[in-house]
Write a structure and sequence with these properties.
This protein is α+β, with helices and mostly antiparallel strands. It is 15% helix and 36% strand. The N and C termini lie far apart (138 Å).
Length: 329
Amino acid sequence: MITPKKHLTDHSSNEMIRDAIRAIALKGFVNRQTGTVRGTSKVTGYVAKIHTDESDELYGTIDVQEYPDWAVEETEEAPIGYHEGVLLTAIQNDTNGYIIIPKLHSDVIVSKDPETGNEYVTMFSHVNLIQLDSHENISIGVREREEYKPDDDEAPDIHELELTGIKTNTTYTKDSVVTTVNTAKDNDEATVTQILGKTDDGLVAKHDVGGKSASTMTPDDIVLEHDKANMTLDDSQAKLEMGQSQVVVEDGTTYVGSKNGVDDAVLGQELATILSDLVGYLGQMMTPTMMGPQPPANMLANFISLKAKISAFKSAHSGFLTKKVQIQK
């Protein structure tokens, strides 16, 4: 009996031929242990050195030491897995644009460009510096969304979740910084805004808290506002207003109540002294009598009593004297 020969199907033989051709073509290009094309794998290690010396040809790069997974003993003269001059950005000495400088001894992942052989840091565990230098503007913020419900088939996908209106945002342009904080949906009283820089009104630093408290600072003045209260500082005066009342302080003069229809203020202690002296002089008046000049009998006691009362006002700040309002002599 003749046993028939076994023939491979066209499909399996074609697959074997392709695998053989691929193995021949990639010989020397593929790492047999990992199966990756040489020069394209990623390396995990830690930052061994940061080149900060401007005279060093490696200035602006870092050295990375791979975490060892080999059994070969290394020496200080020939460390295994030591990557020197790993780039942080596309340009070695670049100080503009987007820059991240990792912290010494922090974990990093390094990728290699197979065309040029250059190595780049692609991921960081800890950093010393993050720089984001834009040509136009930068917007950074957090926006709250409705909770994702993975068990609800009719619920929106995670990228379709509705915004709640609670958010924070800071926008940087070449001449201004605007920060907005919304702590509740569609509620101006729960909004805080800060504007720094150049606006249509000129150079300004402005804060607004819930539409109730605000401060505005310009090169010309400073204005603080809250409800009926308002305070303004400028080159000529400091003015505090509360409803219809105000205090205005100018160089050498203070106005209480208003600047309109004003009169000179009275110094209480000076007035008390003058009145006390006046009453004393009046108490010394004499009237001619048959017995000679005599003080008015019916007024002397009143003068003495009034003088004592004025003296009491001076010592106790009572009566027409009060410490609630103080005026400089």
